[in-house]
């Protein structure tokens, strides 16, 4: 930084320290968003694998889970429909955005899935989803989820 040669060593040190601190703060924000995105991905995989143990670590005790049909589930109902049921053949998330605000985060994405039905047939879903996550000392947990119908293309 040639312009800093005009100033004393203390001024150069303060300037460099301020630049590094700003860079570290920006990186911390990115890291939080990345941690939330990682939790979303672990939730997706656990839902696909019907892995109840992992699902339990990723969701709040007082979870509210809203489906695009209007059905609401609490934690127990959510786990009952997914733990060991192999409800999905595939789940793909796209257009995801993550916003972190303190100890809360919200995630929006499009959720596309192939669902296994009880009669052996399949159905598909193409919905929008809003998730709300809460920070805990051991990681992020899903607090609320609401799905909504997307316009037909």
From TrEMBL:
Keywords: Signal. The keyword DNA-binding does not apply. It holds the Pfam family DUF4440. SUPFAM superfamilies: NTF2-like. Residues 1-28 form the signal peptide. InterPro entries: DUF4440, NTF2-like_dom_sf. Residues 37-142 form the DUF4440 domain. This is Nuclear transport factor 2 family protein. It comes from Burkholderia theae.
């Amino acid at each position: 930084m040639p312009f800093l040669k005009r100033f004393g060593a203390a001024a150069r040190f303060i300037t460099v320290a301020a630049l590094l601190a700003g860079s570290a703060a920006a990186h911390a924000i990115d890291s939080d968003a990345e941690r939330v995105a990682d939790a979303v991905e672990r939730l997706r995989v656990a839902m696909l694998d019907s892995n109840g143990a992992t699902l339990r670590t990723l969701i709040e005790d007082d979870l509210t889970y809203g489906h695009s049909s209007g059905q609401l589930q609490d934690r127990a109902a959510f786990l009952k429909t997914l733990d060991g049921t192999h409800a999905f053949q595939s789940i793909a998330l796209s257009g995801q955005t993550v916003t972190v605000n303190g100890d809360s985060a919200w995630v929006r994405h499009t959720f596309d899935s192939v669902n296994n039905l009880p009669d052996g047939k399949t159905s598909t879903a193409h919905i929008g989803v809003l998730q709300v996550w809460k920070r805990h000392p051991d990681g992020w947990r899903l607090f609320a989820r609401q799905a909504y119908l997307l316009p037909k293309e």
